[in-house]
Design goal:
By secondary structure, the protein is mainly α. Helix content is about 80%, strand content about 0%. The chain has one domain. The longest helix is centred in the first third of the chain and has 22 residues. About 5% of the residues have low confidence.
């Protein structure tokens, strides 16, 4: 039987894999609900859970939600991994084509991006 800290790690891992599975199915809203239920139940998400959700936003080209999720992981004291930054670049590369052809402005992205260096790199990248 599992106890203490190990039990929490198992729960966190199950939630994270659940989020990843939902993202792979394209059920981003359900993945968001799972992340929120983790927080509500005080099973604090790890970087894997946040990266999985950001991956979902890459697949849907939703830069605004990707930036908000990225900012939330930093607010919770987690350090973004290489995968986090790669996913942010991926969502921005997908969004750049949207920005060029639609009325999405860089200023709207700047409002949700607390990491100014990342935002400047994205502007140069696009």
């Amino acid at each position: 039987m599992l106890s203490g800290n190990r039990l929490w790690r198992v729960r966190r891992t199950r939630y994270s894999y659940n989020i990843l599975g939902l993202v792979k199915k394209g059920e981003i809203e359900k993945a968001e609900e799972v992340l929120q239920s983790m927080i509500d139940r005080r099973v604090y998400p790890d970087i894997f859970a946040y990266n999985a959700l950001i991956k979902g936003y890459v697949l849907t080209s939703d830069a605004r939600k990707a930036f908000k999720t990225f900012n939330n992981l930093k607010k919770r004291g987690l350090i973004p991994s290489d995968i986090s930054y790669a996913s942010m670049f991926a969502v921005c590369s997908r969004t750049c084509s949207v920005i060029k052809y639609h009325t999405v402005s860089f200023l709207s992205l700047a409002k949700v991006c607390s990491d100014r260096l990342l935002f400047l790199i994205i502007i140069v990248y696009c």
